[in-house]
Amino acid sequence: MKPVMALVGRPNVGKSTLFNRLTKSRDAIVADFAGLTRDRHYGNAKHGKHEFIVIDTGGFEPTAESGIYMEMAKQTRQAVAEADVVIFVVDARGGLSAQDYDIAKYLRKLGKPTVLTANKAEGMTEGVQLTEFYELGLGEVHAISAAHGQGIRSLVEEALAPL
Ligand code: GDP
Ligand code: MG
C-alpha cells in the first residue's frame, strides 16, 4: 500500500499548486480565486524512492445550509482521516490567520504525523519571517515554494521517511 499524504490549509495558501508540483499533473485546478477546486483530488506521486498518493482539498461547494467553512472543515476531516501524513500548508507571505489556528488545533488534537509547511517562501530568509508559525504548536516550519519548486524534495523526505 502506498502511503497517503493529505494537503490541508485555508483557501489560497497554494495547496493545489503543491498538488500539481507533487503529481506533475494539471489535475488540480489552480486559480487566482480561493476555493475553485471542485472536489477532493487524488493524485499519484513519485519522488526519488518515495511513491505515494496525494489528496488535495479545497473543493468548496458550499450549500446554503453549510456554508464555505463547514464544507472546508468536512473535506479536511475526510482527507485527514484517509491520510498517513498531513501537510498543513500556511502562507509565508500572508502570515497567520484565525483559520490557521483552528486547523492547527484540530490537527494537534488528532495527533497524526503533520508537517507544518510555509508556502510562498521563495526569496525569503528562513527563520526571520517564519518564527510566528511556531505559535501553531506543530513544531518545525518547513519553508517551500510550490510555484518555484523549492524545498519540495526535502518536504517529501521529511513527510515520508518516518512512515
Ligand atoms: P489553494 O486555494 O490553497 O489550492 O491555493 P492555489 O494553489 O490555488 O494558489 C493560490 C494562489 O497562490 C495562486 O495565485 C497561486 O499562483 C499562488 N501560489 C501558489 N504557490 C505559490 C508560491 O510558491 N509562491 C507564490 N508567490 N505564489 C504561490
Ligand atoms: Mg485549491
UniProtKB/TrEMBL annotation:
Is this entry keyworded Protein transport? no
Sample GO molecular function, one term: ribosome binding
User: A GO BP term, please?
Assistant: ribosome biogenesis
Report domain EngA-type G positions.
3-163
The record's keywords, sorted A to Z, are: GTP-binding, Nucleotide-binding, Repeat, Ribosome biogenesis
* Entry binding sites for GTP 1: 9-16, 56-60, 119-122
Instruction: Identify the domain of life.
Output: Bacteria
Function summary: GTPase that plays an essential role in the late steps of ribosome biogenesis.
Q: How does it assemble?
A: Associates with the 50S ribosomal subunit.
Q: Which family does it belong to?
A: Belongs to the TRAFAC class TrmE-Era-EngA-EngB-Septin-like GTPase superfamily. EngA (Der) GTPase family.
Q: Quote the protein name from its UniProt record.
A: GTPase Der
Origin organism of this chain?
A: Caenimonas aquaedulcis
Encoding gene (name): der
